[in-house]
Write the structure tokens for this entry.
Amino acid sequence: MAVSSRVVAILGAGPNVGNKVAERFTAAGYKVAVVSRSGKSIPTTIAALSLSADFKNPKIVHGVFEEVRKKLGEPSVVVYNGSRISTSVLLEIASDLRFPASQLMLRALRLQPQMSYLWTSKQDHLSINTTSTFAAAQEAVRSFDAINDKDTPRTFIYTGNICNQAAFLPFLTLGVGKAASSHMIDLASKSYVDKGYRYV
Ligand SMILES: NC(=O)c1ccc[n+]([C@@H]2O[C@H](COP(=O)([O-])OP(=O)(O)OC[C@H]3O[C@@H](n4cnc5c(N)ncnc54)[C@H](OP(=O)(O)O)[C@@H]3O)[C@@H](O)[C@H]2O)c1
């Protein structure tokens, strides 16, 4: 199969990691599909297809893959790049332990960074960081199975961070999601080794 007929789906693509990953695959000759809530966070010169979807709801993942299959073909590479952090970006950064003022700020705000969250109100974080990742990993297997050309590398890439190695205040929901997904990716990588599918 010519590289130009290969397809990559980047789920959660924006101006930082997602954009650069899309650029690299476009340069390598792939047809690139990107997905974000706005559906337009990446220039059309980089992506052949830009879809709008919110991974807060894992049930929409199947429809996203169907759209990519219909418009571009079965993706041989899937990048799950979307994520959700637990509180405002400002607080996340300010409360990082590397900043001397961070603990003072947490105390001043009476913020109990770990267990003060009402987990029920953070279900969408778990969906975005993990449940939709699981749904995407399942859809990826369906696509990989449907690709007949044995020479086509088939890979699922999850954009992680350091949270599967260590816990950092106050990244509770982000850390739980990244650690759980890391575990899932590790298991998938072992499960599909015989088929040559890579989960990283
Ligand atoms: N940036 C960092 O410093 C850093 C460090 C370590 C790890 N990471 C990881 O790298 C990944 C990418 O982060 P990034 O900051 O570089 O962002 P990015 O790739 O530039 O963009 C991610 C895009 O995902 C989309 N998105 C967010 N929530 C979504 C949802 N619920 N459903 C669908 N799309 C959604 C957003 O577009 P819309 O707003 O249009 O939906 C956003 O533009 C994340 O998994 C993050 O945890 C980032």
Q: What stands out?
A: Residues 87-121 form one domain. The beta strands are 7-11, 31-36, 49-52, 77-80, 155-158, 198-199. Residues 88-95 have pLDDT under 50 and may be disordered. The longest strand covers residues 31-36.
